[in-house]
Design goal:
148 residues; alpha+beta; Arc Repressor Mutant, subunit A; Alpha-Beta Plaits; 5 helices; 20% strand
Length: 148
């Protein structure tokens, strides 16, 4: 994809708001014919601008809803330590997001569990068994007024 014009930006905004919108409705909202709109969406998918579509879940209705953001510091910043830590996070269903960041820590995690006891178990049995860890700081979400 060479450049992203205003119509394409509008398409992306509409899809971010509702990934299940029909092509006909999307085309109408952005001012294109359905065939032209579909071609643009397919090109955005082909070139990787649109990475996929997903369902946004209300975890409080799925024995979840207890959200903790976890700042993780590693004892060493070696590639092997990062890879080992990331491998554990990829296998952990409680970890909804894992971001490698710059600054005083190496990772920020978004963890979703049912309650404080479940988080303590994750903290102890998953994070607590990673030999690469130097520090763990937990931030319990009180509410999420804006969330994807």
């Amino acid at each position: 994809m060479n450049s992203i014009d205003q119509i394409t930006r509008n398409i992306l905004q509409q899809l971010e708001n509702n990934g299940r919108i029909s092509n006909v409705e999307l085309a109408e909202r952005v001012g294109l014919s359905p065939s032209a709109c579909l071609r643009r969406v397919q090109e955005l998918e082909r070139c990787g601008v649109i990475k996929g579509y997903r369902a946004v879940l209300d975890r409080s209705k799925l024995d979840g809803g207890f959200t903790v953001f976890v700042a993780v510091g590693l004892s060493k910043q070696r590639k092997t330590d990062q890879e080992a830590f990331e491998k554990v996070m990829l296998r952990s269903p409680e970890v909804i997001e894992c971001h490698n960041v710059s600054g005083a820590i190496e990772y920020i995690l978004k963890v979703e569990v049912s309650d404080l006891a479940a988080y303590k178990k994750f903290h102890t049995e998953t994070l607590g068994t990673c030999p690469e860890l130097k520090s763990i700081t937990s931030y319990i979400a009180m509410s999420s007024p804006k969330e994807i």
